[in-house]
Design a protein that fits this description.
By secondary structure, the chain is an alpha+beta fold. It has helices at 21-27, 60-65, 73-107, 112-163, 188-192, and strands spanning 18-20, 29-42, 45-58, 165-167, 172-175, 178-184.
């Protein structure tokens, strides 16, 4: 019976420390969760309370070999913050300027210069409000377009990642069927081109 050289490490030539990358990641990753239930008592009576916690722990090698995901959450979060927080904050200033103008015109205290200043503030606040809303929408759209444009590249990288093996002795990743796909484990991104 002949032993296949297919899974031999290209660096050391041995196969006793070779494992599929996806297996190393799966074996080095644990998921845990905890649920707690109880009753809280107060002056008004009692109420049921519950909590749920989940966590993921990875070994160093598992973390190093995990498929690299690109996070697009920051663009979405900044876009939403721009729309939900910054735009309303600007509109509060806009409202305050309107109230100031109304009070001044009602009391007859405002001079022509003050009225011009108030009108300018209204325009500036309105423009800034629109800019924040447009900025938020643009950030969300840009992030979605970027994510969708990376999809083919991500799929190609995943196909390569699923073909990779890891040698624990040499800290090397390689694809047995392609000699060009070989590098130290720290250079995973360069092999995946992702």
């Amino acid at each position: 019976m002949e032993v296949s050289t297919y899974l031999h490490c290209p660096t050391c030539g041995q196969m006793d420390m070779v494992q599929k990358v996806s297996t190393v990641v799966e074996g080095g990753t644990t998921h845990g969760s905890t649920s707690s239930y109880g009753t809280a008592y107060g002056r008004g009576g009692s109420v049921g309370v519950s909590s749920y916690t989940s966590s993921t722990h990875q070994t160093e090698i598992s973390r190093k070999l995990t498929f690299p995901e690109h996070s697009h959450a920051l663009g979405i979060i900044l876009g939403i913050l721009s729309i939900i927080i910054l735009a309303p904050a600007t509109s509060c200033l806009f409202f305050e300027t309107i109230v100031m103008a109304a009070v001044n015109s009602h009391t007859g205290v405002a001079t022509a210069a003050q009225r011009t200043h108030e009108i300018n503030l209204l325009w500036i606040n309105g423009i800034v409000f629109l800019l924040f809303v447009l900025l938020g929408i643009a950030m969300i759209i840009f992030t979605i377009i970027k994510k969708n444009s990376e999809k083919p590249k991500r799929q190609q990288a995943q196909m390569i990642w699923h073909r990779l093996f890891y040698c624990h002795r040499d800290d090397t990743i390689f694809a047995p069927d392609d000699p060009t796909l070989r590098a130290p484990a720290t250079h995973m991104r360069s092999i995946l081109n992702y």
